[in-house]
Amino acid sequence: MSVGRIVMYVFAAMLAGVTIGMLKSWPPPEPSPRTLAQPEAPAVVTSISVRSSPTPAPASSSPAPSAEPPPASGERKPVRYRPGPELPPGEAVRAEGEGWWRTIAGTTAQVGTGQVRTYSVEVEQGAVLPHTHQQFAAAVDAALADPRGWTASGEVAFRRVDVEEPDVRIRLTATGTARAICGFDLPYDTSCYAGGVVYVSAPRWFRGAQSFAGDLEGYRRYLINHEIGHFLGHGHEACPADGAPAPVMMQQTFSVSNDRLAEITAPSPQGFTVPRDGKTCVANPWPHPEVSR
């Protein structure tokens, strides 16, 4: 290679190095407005808000103040709730029937060894649904046949009839009919015995009484035994002792507390003055609860 060519190569290399250096130091071009970086939009997240329980306060060494001071030693805490005469919540029943009754077919053998008293079971037409008729009759039969019932005394026996004239009729009755017959002296749904007929209030039959605390079967047996007790000549009674079974002739539909019952019946005495003596009994459907079943 000639000296001239070598000189040319060296010169070309130097020129390329200078060009690259100038390019590296040249300021970068400004970006086009359409390529400017945009701030990122926050992501949208769909969520369900659940309210959490508040953070519990730190435990304290001293107890929180009570709404009511505890009773002193030996002191009886006052009773806050006494069952009353209002109907418990439950299914609605028709207020009015047609005013006439149909005898439910069926008879029973005699139960008991005393004087035989016959009864029929009847339902006011239009008062209740047909499928409840036989249920009502079966419940009446069971109440009167139970060994804890009136037959335990040995003085009376029962037999159900459906054709012959009975000694007493037991009728499931609409609200309006029961109130018209049993009276409006007390503003509560109630059953009664009048003129050889037991009128069973349909609202009471299907909803019971507060005194029985949801024991609908027990209340129904009480209702039948109480009204048949009137048919047999028994009057009303009061609670004899705190915590004792209420007498079946106590007006347990209204209350098992003498004080509460006296308050309820004061405007319309029920043939018996209830003593205000603070005694409260336990609901009981039987004339003879002491008898083992």
UniProtKB/TrEMBL annotation:
The Low complexity compositionally biased stretches are 52-65
Q: Which Pfam families does UniProt cross-reference here?
A: DUF3152
Q: Tell me where on the tree of life, at the top rank, the source sits.
A: Bacteria
Residue ranges occupied by any DUF3152 domain in the UniProt entry: 87-289
Please list where the region (Disordered) is annotated.
Answer: 28-94
Q: Does the record's keyword annotation contain Membrane?
A: yes
SUPFAM superfamilies, per database record: Metalloproteases ('zincins'), catalytic domain (SSF55486)
- Mark the transmembrane ranges: 6-26
Kindly provide the name given to this protein in its UniProt entry: DUF3152 domain-containing protein
Taxonomic lineage: Bacteria, Bacillati, Actinomycetota, Actinomycetes, Pseudonocardiales
